[in-house]
Design goal:
This protein is an alpha+beta fold and 458 residues long. Strands 1, 12, 13 and 14 form a four-stranded antiparallel sheet that branches. It has a four-stranded mixed sheet with strand order 2-11-10-9, with no helix packed on it. A four-stranded antiparallel sheet has the order 5-6-8-7. The chain is globular and about 70 Å long.
């Protein structure tokens, strides 16, 4: 499904955590808690269940939180992470340094670290990096989202601890696509039989990719591999268990190659319902709730008793909401229609009504605080009159007078699919449906499980 970004706004999120008065330094004011020491568990609420814990096939944000934590290093790790001082992609993780880049920006050379072990004790090697990219690029592997970032990758060569990537086009995104898109996975776990040893990277991205029997067999095994529910990584936390629908438990990796984390365990408690999650927080059943609903932040988490026990923070996250129009459908093939759909909805009013003013209308998919953001690009305006003009210019007119626009005998009636864990859809859909109805567009709605939605999109 190809997408056009519309009805888009940047998200402000909220975090609330328990600060227990019975612990040294604890204070509702967020006072210094003293020198950290090893021990204790933390119970963190997630609003949904991961689809899988395989970083190549997952399309779930909660899965990413579980696998990578907040800085690309929890169960699995990437080659480079972000420097949190300036959010530049310069923090070496599985490699010794950012890559050496050729003058034409087509060759990127990394040196992998020595002395790193997988959670099962096996050594991490450059062959794991090569295998990860080969697995991701297998056309029959369910890795289309990450594969789409690597379409310019022509070849990979390994020489000792050096791994060299060859690209067909220079791009500002080459480093992030190579070093921060794929978490490195263990070859000895996912390809114990060496099925991909018999084929090169060029074989995989060439005609053999869909015909070679070894590649076919590998893809079938990989897509259903048990390690997708019991991952083995190199990170500071090991997977312990996954109790479906309830919790995921991670324990500290005492053999971690960098500074070891303080917490003995991280318990990821799955509570989809936001009111239930807040109740659990107040009852002491969870310690940290990474996100609150706007109404919870504004009206349900305040007062002396609350402030004494909890610390609450507001922060901007690099995220945005959008509607994806399927351009294979007759309604959305024309750019003018997609622009009209955006102009029909008052996004600023939605932010005020739904998010208590906590957010902003997005002009692009770049974070407004990032250096990549172009301040000269302005959001499409709320302009229903111009939207109607664009629809009619595109040929969508109510020819038969039944109140629904049509073109070439096709009614402008489409289905909006959303997932049942969304906190914004119950408020968003009635607004959008009504705005479309006013101008002769019929929108039907279907709410389904998140994992079903992702499969439908594929």
């Amino acid at each position: 499904m190809r997408r056009a970004v519309a009805l888009c706004f940047v998200v402000t999120s909220f975090l609330v955590g328990c600060s227990r008065p019975d612990r040294p330094g604890a204070s509702g004011s967020g006072a210094d808690a003293g020198t950290p020491v090893s021990g204790d568990w933390v119970i963190v609420r997630y609003e949904g269940e991961p689809d899988t814990l395989n970083p190549l096939t997952s399309s779930s944000s909660v899965a990413n939180y579980a696998m990578f934590g907040m800085n690309n290093s929890q169960i699995y790790e990437l080659m480079l992470g972000y420097n949190t001082n300036d959010w530049s992609l310069t923090q070496p993780i599985l490699v010794e340094a950012p890559p050496e880049v050729s003058e034409d920006h087509l060759t990127y050379t990394f040196t992998t670290r020595e002395g790193i072990k997988w959670h099962d004790g096996q050594p991490f090697t450059p062959e794991d990096v090569l295998f990860t990219f080969k697995a991701a690029m297998c056309p029959l592997v369910d890795s289309a989202p990450v594969r789409s970032y690597l379409t310019e990758l022509k070849d990979i060569q390994v020489n000792g601890r050096t791994i060299r990537f060859f690209l067909s086009k220079a791009s500002v995104f080459n480093v992030i696509n190579l070093a921060n898109t794929l978490a490195i996975i263990p070859k000895h776990v996912f390809d114990a039989g060496g099925l991909l040893d018999a084929v090169t990277y060029k074989d995989i991205i060439g005609p053999k990719g869909t015909t070679d029997p070894n590649i076919k067999k590998f893809a079938e095994q990989f897509n259903n591999h048990p390690a997708s529910r019991a991952p083995i990584g190199t990170g500071p936390y090991k997977f312990e268990k996954w109790d479906t629908g309830r919790e995921i438990v991670l324990k500290r990796n005492d053999d971690y190659w960098r500074a070891k984390p303080y917490l003995d365990k991280i318990i990821i408690r799955i509570i989809q319902d936001y009111p239930a999650a807040l109740t659990a927080l107040k009852a002491g059943e969870i310690d940290l709730q990474p996100r609150l609903l706007p109404i919870q932040y504004a009206q349900q988490t305040s007062g002396a008793a609350f402030d004494q026990q909890f610390v609450k923070a507001k922060y901007s996250i690099p995220s945005y909401y959008y509607i994806g129009w399927n351009e294979d459908r007759p309604f959305f093939k024309d750019k003018r229609v997609r622009q009209a759909m955006t102009m029909l909805v008052d996004r600023q009013q939605m932010i005020q009504a739904i998010r208590f003013g906590l957010g902003s209308v997005a002009a692009s998919h770049f974070n407004p605080a990032s250096k990549q953001f172009n301040p000269n690009i302005k959001p499409w305006p709320y302009d229903p009159k111009r939207a109607v003009e664009l629809l009619e210019e595109a040929g969508w007119i109510d020819h038969d007078g039944d109140g629904i626009r049509d073109k070439d005998g096709v009614k402008f009636s489409f289905e909006f699919q959303g997932y049942n864990g969304s906190t914004i859809l119950p408020q968003l859909m009635p607004i959008v449906r009504e705005e479309f109805r006013k101008v002769g567009i019929e929108m039907k709605e279907r709410i389904i499980e998140y994992n079903v939605l992702t499969q439908n999109l594929k």
